[in-house]
Amino acid sequence: MSARPALRMALAALAALAPAAGGAQPLPPALQARVAACAACHGADGHATRPEVPHLAGQPALFLENRLVMMREGLSPVPAMAGLLDGLGDAELSALARHFAARPLQPPGPARDAAQAARGAALSQRAHCGSCHLPDYAGREQIPRLAGQREDYLLKSLRDFAAGRTAGRDKLMSSALVGLSDADLRDLAHHLAHHRVTTPPR
Interhelix angle for 90-101 vs 61-72, to 10°? Predict the structure, then answer.
């Protein structure tokens, strides 16, 4: 079986495992050690403190599940995650995703630069960010939340998408960033990082 059909089957299985109503179930003891490993970079509450590491708290559970599957299968490699997902089945990845998705989202951190945020807001309209990520950038289903994400991580991700360095990721993002300068990407990241989510995680 090729990688893509196998991936579709895995994602379908994860969708079937997701609970009908929101809320994470208590993690089994075997997964608690994995959560501790995640916390070393992403924070025990899902809020990362290391540079260019994303917050996981409040992300859509399906988005996190998809990313975990892609990384486990080697279809979207992240060097820092190498080996951490070995031996985990779909149900365990789903449980980890729900655990971090259910962590409360903290409000944005450092004071925003109003002029830079305004430029970023205009760029987000130009790039139609809200069409997929929703107008408040809360994300939905397999599409990540951008609002309140770490600014340095957003900037790194935007630069990677713009340069085509995103194996296994949706190419739509790369096309949405065509024509934006690095200064534009910095403004966009600043706007998104300091935008408050107004809707609950989906």
Answer: 140
